[in-house]
Amino acid sequence: MSDLFDSTAYYRLSCDRYGQETLLSDGYNADAPDPLFLGTTSYSSENWQIYFQDEVYFIRNFDYGANYQLAVSSTTDTQPQLLPTTGDLAQQWNITIWPDGTRKLVNMAVGEFQILGVSTNSTDFIIPVMNTAEEGSHWTFDINSSAGEVSADMTLPLSSVAKASTTATSTSPAQSTATAQSTSPVTPATSTNAQKSSALSSGAIAGIAVGGVAFAVFVFIAIFLMMRKRSRAGKNAPKELLTSNSETYRDNPYGSQALHQTTHQLPAEIYVDRKIRASVHAGAVEMPP
């Protein structure tokens, strides 16, 4: 961001709501600054230096020189005031250009959601406030050459300027360092996780191999037992068949007993037949009783 102002000159500030004759002022010069207001009375305190350093602006008053700067006392403070000079964010301003060529002022501690404008609630004074209304926040900066140039001490840079967080326009070196330190331990953790993942993959492969071998052994044993069982069944088949036949004949009246009797009677019939034949052959027929 380039410097929009001449840091050696004084400017008078007016807003779009009240015109260029109503100027931002601190009133009469005193030991300590009074609350700010906008008025038409001419005061020396209506002159302001716009000092640019480290991409931000510091706004100083003619009456109080480099000792005081326009600021907010906290991020919740809605009324800017002159406070003892520091490089804090609360004393830093981002000044940009509205489309109509006027200036927009944003406090670096408060952020973009509020801009420097004027209050509509006061009946006695026009008070500068931080608010969200665009009306009254268009500021005109006019060089007042009659005020002369700023003193030499007002051109000296501040010894330190605070940097905005990542939510603002820049990041402080301290925060960048902290970020680097917080992220550096992550790399070994990632490497460790990768090693664990690799080890897990090796273990899984070994488990699959062992499981495959165990399954092959199981199949071989199952086939062996099946073949052995069939072999035994073949050897016992005749014995089981005889036992089955014996059981069948036991309940059959023409079973094994009848067959046994028939077998024993057969020789007697053959004997009778032979005896008859012998009698016929001898010439005498003798019937058996």
TrEMBL record:
Q: Which domain of life is it from?
A: Eukaryota
Q: Which residues cross the membrane?
A: 204-226
**InterPro entries assigned:** Immunoregulatory_rcpt-like (IPR051694), Ricin_B-like_lectins (IPR035992)
Q: Which PANTHER family match?
A: PAIRED IMMUNOGLOBULIN-LIKE TYPE 2 RECEPTOR
User: What protein am I looking at?
Assistant: Ricin B lectin domain-containing protein
Which UniProt keywords are present, listed alphabetically? Membrane, Transmembrane, Transmembrane helix
- Give the taxonomic lineage as stored in the record: Eukaryota, Fungi, Dikarya, Ascomycota, Pezizomycotina
Q: Tell where it localizes.
A: Membrane
Q: Which GO terms describe its cellular component?
A: cell periphery; membrane
